[in-house]
Amino acid sequence: MIRKILWFTVFTLVSAYLLIAVTAFNRIPAGEVCRDMVLIIKDSVYTGFITKEEIVSILEKKEMYPVGRTLASIHTRAIEELLSKHSLINKVECYKTPSGKLCIEVSQRIPILRIMSAGGGNYYIDDRGEEMPLDSKCVAHLPIVTGKVEKSFAMRDLYKFGVFLQQDKFWNAQIEQINVLPNSTVELIPRVGNHIVYLGRLTGFEEKLERVKIFYRKGLNRVGWNKYSRINVEFDNQIICTKRE
Fold first, then answer.
1. Residue 238 burial (CB count, 10 A)
2. Is residue 111 a contact partner of residue 122, using CB atoms and an 8 Å limit?
3. Per-residue confidence (pLDDT) for residue 2, from 0 to 100
4. Residue 69 CB-density burial (10 A; 0-12 exposed, 13-18 middle, 19+ buried)
5. Tell me, what DSSP letter sits at residue 48?
6. What is the DSSP string of 69-110?
7. Which of 42, 50, 40, 151 is nearest to 102 (CA)?
8. 171: left (phi over 0), alpha (psi -120 to 50) or beta
9. Residue 29: its pLDDT value, please?
10. Beta strands, E only, the chain
């Protein structure tokens, strides 16, 4: 019993000490002025979407630019809410440091497909399955989706396909264009090889593309990448090729 009381007392004292130490370390002196704003842009492969200059401009227009102001007068939550309204920003975290800086961490919205529908739709789809406007200054090389693209089909079926392409290194590099036919079947135009890959419905596209990859390795690498004009993997366990005339 005494041992338990001693253990509880020591635990309480250590916890209290750590709490006081952390609080003291993070305490910002009264009147401390913000010396700098540090912008951390996540997903650095897509840098160029959001820049420090753009963030500074947004904050200056709303008279919320922090440098030169007292840290006590800077409301981090208000800055987060303001920047989160930007069409390219997914999430914002803003905090002050004991060294007198304001840090802003930005998670960007990442486009995965560019839709150019024959019906007039022209937009990006991001990695959350949401529409992004064309003024997004996208610098990434994305697969372009053409043909008769209904918005519901794009946001559901094509979004899932786009996520797969983004995560698969081989197919992300190989697929240049996705063409949607009037009956919602799909054909792919690759970057390498003068042929079309006809998937048919997008159902089971992972298995279909795996068959194509094997055919690339065991077939086209031997007979040449321009031998066929069309590779059809619509049906299970089949590859139907059309020779080039």
1. 9
2. no
3. 59
4. middle
5. T
6. SBGGG--HHHHHHHHTTSTTEEEEEEEE-TTSEEEEEEEEP-
7. 40
8. alpha
9. 61
10. 36-41, 89-96, 101-108, 111-116, 122-126, 131-132, 144-147, 175-180, 186-190, 196-200, 228-232, 240-243
> By the 8 A CB rule, do 227 and 233 touch?
no
* pLDDT in the model for residue 87: 81
Residue-level pLDDT at 48: 55
Q: Cα separation of 245 and 220, whole Å?
A: 17
Beta-carbon-side half-sphere exposure of residue 197 (alpha carbons within 13 Å): 26
Do you know the residue count of the chain? 245
Q: Which two tokens stand for residue 179?
A: 């063409």
Longest CA pairwise span in the chain (Å): 93
d(Cα 52, Cα 214) in Å, to the nearest integer?
A: 45
Give ∠ CA 230-234-235 in degrees, rounded to 5.
125
Question: Coil, helix or strand for 121?
Answer: coil
Cα–Cα distance for residue pair 17/19, rounded to 1 Å = 5
Which residues of the chain fall short of a pLDDT of 50? 8, 10-11, 13-14, 16-26, 47
**pLDDT number for residue 16:** 45
CB atoms within 10 A of CB 195: 20
Residue 17: predicted pLDDT:
43
Give the model's pLDDT for residue 159: 95
CB-count exposure of residue 207 (10 Å: 0-12, 13-18, 19+): exposed
Q: Residue 211: what pLDDT?
A: 94
